[in-house]
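Two entries, shown back to back:
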Amino acid sequence: TTFMSSEENSSLSCILPIIYGLVENLKSCCSEVSSSVSEFSKIVIAELKRRWELESLNTASCMVMACMLDPRFKQLKFLTEQQTQLVKEELYEKMDSFFQRSDSLQPVSEHQPPKKKKTEASALDVLLGEEDVSTSSVSKTEELLH
C-alpha cells in the first residue's frame, strides 16, 4: 500500500510485479500456516489470478509493455521466458510501426498556426494571476528559429 500510494513510484508498470509478488508470497506461506489461513490464501490467489487474468495474460497489453519499458522491471521476472520473448517481439513490432509512420509523415509547413482565442480566466488564473504564456512562447520560438 505504501509503495503504490507514493507519488514517486506510482506507475502502471508497478501493478503486475506487485500482483505476481503477492501471489508468490501467498503460495509460499500457505504451507507454513494453519489450514484456515491456508484456505484463505488459496482463495485470494485464485481471485487475483481470475481478476487480473494472470493465466491468460495478454503480452501486448499496456501493463506488460509498461513493465518492459520500466528499468526497475524490464527483466519481467514474473513472466515465463516464452512470455518475455513475446513481449519483446511485440515491443519491437510497435517500435518498427512507429518509425515507419513517422518516416512517412509530410514535412511541417512554414505557415504560422492560427492565433488562439482568448478564453475566460479560470479559477486557477484568478488565484495565480494571468500570464500570457502563448505569446511569450511564440516569440521565444520565433527568436530561436531566426
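entry 2 starts here
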Amino acid sequence: VHWADTTKMLKFVLMVNKQGQTRLAQYFEYLTIQERAQLEAEVIRKCLARNETECSFFEYRQYTIVYRRYASLFFIVGCDNTGAENELAILEFIHTLVETLDKYFENVCELDIMFNIEKAHFIVDEMVMNGCIVETNKQNVLAPIRLSDKLGS
C-alpha cells in the first residue's frame, strides 16, 4: 500500500434527520453534485431502514458506512472499505463529535445545526482535515470558535 493511499481515512460526514433530510454534508474527496445526491439518498435510505438491533456499520459500494443515531439526528461517516479503518474508532469519533457539538450548543439539536451550519462545519473542520481525524480534544476543538465568537460580539 502506498502512503498516499492511506492518508484519507474519512470520505464524508453527514448529519441527517429521521425524515432523511441532510442537515450537514462534508466531503473529503471530490464527487459531483449528482454523485453526492445519489450517494446521500442511497446511504440515508439504508441507514433509516436498519433497526436498532443491527450493527452500526455496513459496506456500501467502495465505502464502509459507520453511523449512529442521537435523538432525531443520524451521524453518518463514510470510510474507505480497504479494511484500514477501525469501525469502533469511527463510532468513537462520532460520539466525540456529538459531545463537542453538545458542549458548544449546550445540548445540540437539529435546529442548532440548521441555523448555525457554518459553526457546525467549523467544528467538523477542526476535528477532520483532508479526511484524517486530527483533533479529538473538545477544548482544543472549541477554542478557536469560542475566540471567534468573542471577537465577533
